[in-house]
Amino acid sequence: MRWLEYFVFLALVVALARPAGLYLARVFEGKSTFLDPALRPAESFLHRWLGVRSRQEMSAGVYTLCFLLFSAAGTGVLLLLLLIQRRLPSGPADHYLTTPMTADLAANTAISFATTTTWQAYGGESTLRYLTQLLGLVSQNFLAGAAGLAVGIAFIRGFARERSATVGNFWVDLVRALLWVLLPLALVGSLVLMWQGVPLNLAPYTEAHTLEGGAQTIAQGPVGALEFIKNLGTNGGGFFNANGAHPYENPTPLVNFLGLLAIAVLPASLTITFGHMAGSPRAGWTLLAVMVVLFAGGLALCDFAEAAAPPQLANLHVSGGNMEGKEVRFGIGGSVLAAVVTSNGATGSYNSMHDSYRPVGVLVLLVNMLLGEVVFGGLGTGLYSMVMIALIAVFIGGLMIGRTPEYLGKKITAAEIRWTALYALLTPAVVLVSTSVAIATSAGRAGLVTNGGTRGFSEVLFAYASSMANNGQSMAGLNANSLFYNATTAVAMLAGRFGLAALALALAGRFAAQRRWPTTVGTLPGDSATFGALVLGTIVLVGAVCFLPALALGPIAEALHH
Question: Mind listing the pLDDT tens digit for each residue in 302-317?
Answer without folding.
Answer: 999 998 877 766 666 6
